[in-house]
Design a protein that fits this description.
Elements: H1 2-20, H2 27-36, H3 68-126, H4 128-149, H5 156-176, H6 185-198, H7 204-237, H8 243-253, H9 255-258, H10 268-278, H11 280-302, H12 309-314, H13 316-329, H14 331-342, H15 367-370, H16 377-389, H17 398-407, E1 415-416, E2 421-422
Antiparallel strand pairs: 1-2
Helix pairs in contact: 3-4, 3-7, 3-8, 3-13, 3-16, 4-5, 5-6, 5-7, 6-14, 7-11, 8-10, 10-17, 11-16
Bound molecules: 2-acetamido-2-deoxy-beta-D-glucopyranose (4 copies).
One 2-acetamido-2-deoxy-beta-D-glucopyranose binds near residues 227, 230 and 234.
Family: Belongs to the glypican family.
InterPro entries: Glypican (IPR001863), Glypican_CS (IPR019803)
Keywords: Cell membrane, Glycoprotein, GPI-anchor, Heparan sulfate, Lipoprotein, Membrane, Proteoglycan, Signal
Length: about 425
Amino acid sequence: MGVLLRTNLIFFLACFCGLVFGNPNRCDEVRKVFQLRQIGPNQLLPLSPRQGSDLQVCMSKNQTCCTKKMEERYQVAARRDIQNLLQTSSSSLKFLISRNVAAFQETFEVLMRQAENYTNTVLQDSYGNMADQAMGPVRELFTDISLFLLGSELNVDDLVQRFFDSLFPLVYNHLINPGLSDISSGYAECVRSSSRDVRPFGGAPSLLADQIARSGVSGKLLLQALHLGIEVINTTDHLQLSRECRRALLKMHYCPHCQGLTQSKPCMGYCLNVMRGCLASMAEIDTHWREFVRSLEGLSARMHGPHDLEQVLLGVHTLLHDAIGHAQKNGPRLSAQVHKLCGPPNRRPTQADSIQHSSNKEFTPLKALVRVSGDSLAVKRRDFLNSLRLYRTYYGGLADQLCVSELASSDGHSCWNGTDIVKRSP
Ligand SMILES: *[C@@H]1O[C@H](CO)[C@@H](O)[C@H](O)[C@H]1NC(C)=O
Ligand SMILES: *[C@@H]1O[C@H](CO)[C@@H](O)[C@H](O)[C@H]1NC(C)=O
Ligand SMILES: *[C@@H]1O[C@H](CO)[C@@H](O)[C@H](O)[C@H]1NC(C)=O
Ligand SMILES: *[C@@H]1O[C@H](CO)[C@@H](O)[C@H](O)[C@H]1NC(C)=O
């Protein structure tokens, strides 16, 4: 009799609980989601709702489908969810920056090749007999400039002066004091080392060095700034969340599951509260980030005229043409000075084909060739900054943006307020 009564009572209680929990067992739904999102092994779930006195965050007067072990798993999952969300959210910004770093570098390389080509072409056209021999030093000059612009600690004055030094023997041999045969290599070496005293190219070397240094500094800063930008995004992608934040995320995302409410979303105000707290360190980045975008704009605005790398590089051939012209005009004086320093020209034995007379054709600057497409650095820079400007408030508005677009319940639906599901009156 007693046994029967007890059995009935248990049966009755089981039915009653089932009723309160809606479906025969709410934990089935919880189990499904637990499995689907790979939150942890299914054995962690209780078979039916229980009292959750051991829970630390998802406490409730109601019965629960959670255990303490599940809470731990939920906490890990909540953190993972947010980090995925942050990465997804910043990926377009990261892509924008890294794509532009790549594009700038590519444009820059094309620009370098073009500038070298113009320089060789002008030498070919105007000073044909020395053009082939000048190609080596020209190549070296542009290689050095590239290295400098990409970050090497090269001294611009030195690299430019080295170029003009090696140009002087060629100019001497072919234009200033042409003879029946080339000067000997020893004599060429003396001419080269006299270059700093004789200054055959006037102010051209220091002018070029100055232009490269000025325009290059802005270009270098721009690239450095872009790398810095990627680093900032990298750091925030891997943001460390505080203990309080992790608990708050658990409560917001997964505590409803413990009550079988797997579909519920947090209320907007609640979400904003939690997310602003978790992303407080990002809000600190906000000021710096805005400053970063503003300084890129300032940097870019300063990059024109003699500060525009593109103009400087594509003007090297003109500057060089003028510099050689200057030396030619002062030929007699230079010749005398070299004679004083190096003695009379020492020439190689005559070879039939070693003599070519200079044919100074009329020089036409290659300006017309310069603007070939809209791919110039300046255009790229402007487009990039226009896109980046849209992200100026990215960090300050991130918490709000995530709640509005992803996390929180939209207006008019019921939502989870941290302890209960509340119905919104429309
Ligand atoms: C410059 O480039 C053009 C077109 O690519 C090429 O035909 C020419 O040979 C190059 N000139 C020199 C001097 O490298
Ligand atoms: C950013 O992170 C990615 C992957 O985590 C790494 O490959 C890249 O080098 C990082 N970039 C910077 C600038 O730190
Ligand atoms: C807890 O149970 C009460 C009734 O016992 C119910 O009204 C309430 O909505 C439940 N809370 C949750 C979060 O399920
Ligand atoms: C959530 O809603 C319930 C019921 O409306 C209320 O009693 C409780 O104070 C609310 N909790 C918070 C944190 O707002």
